[in-house]
Amino acid sequence: MNKYSYEQAYKTASNLLPKGFTSIERGRNNWVFEHEDRILMIPRHERVKNYSVRVKATQFLHSNGIPVSEILDYSPENNGSPEYLLVKRVDGEHIDLSKSTLLERERVHRSVGEILGAMHNLSSLGYGRLKPNLIGENGSWVDFTDKFFTESIEYVKKSPELYSRFGGILEEEYQKGRNNLINIFLPSFLHADFHLDNLLFKNEQISAVLDLDIVSSGDSNWDSGHYCHTFNIDRINGVRSFRLGYNKAHDYVRERLYCLMIWTRKIGSQAIQRPEALKETLPELEKILGDEI
Predict the structure, then answer these.
(1) Are 187 and 127 in contact (CB under 8 A)?
(2) End-to-end CA, the chain
(3) Total H helices, total E strands in the chain
(4) Could you report the per-residue pLDDT of 257-276, keeping only the tens digit for each?
């Protein structure tokens, strides 16, 4: 269900970009309009709470040298007028690994590792999803993971077929690994949805980190494990290059558990909203369960 209609968004764009603009179809969550070097975003789907966390996270990362989009203007909802975010276009593009050479892919993954490592060097407060003050909502990391997994498995239960096939296995895996999550302290700043589609590149180097709506505070293995399972071209070499750039210790057991949790959420939400996407998500879940890269 739309939070703001296209007509509302178009009217706002007309006021902010009076010299003309192009409406861009770029996803289900936001209305996007472009004019020259400016990009205007207005919440489209009701699942978009607001942009306040994205704005604060962007400012925080920019102040710490992480490449992000430059914010030109931001306004929360005001007397019925839609919330909007105006940013400067980044000099970069999404990468297509299938059209890249081996050396180009190595540079891409190494750059990803370097930027993620820099993000994880940033200390954070609290645990779980960050509020607009950039403090986590939960009192401990395991409080967050318990809540996240419980919500995720409830989504899966809405599909009796999926729950029958995977529910018991996923519940058992989480309970088996939960003790490893209790003593996680000194949380890192997490992107929490870190994959190639949320990154822009120029000359195989990251030019911007995108989609900072669910940034979090917690165990860095959440991001590193997720990234390693979200591209399919030459994955073994890609992970090796990523680890070289990341240059930090990782815990494979926790990475795997977090991936199972994330894929639990994915299959549950996709079964409701985008069942056609399961043809890619389910095989990856089976790989993770089988300890495969």
Answers:
(1) yes
(2) 37
(3) 10, 11
(4) 999 999 999 999 999 989 99
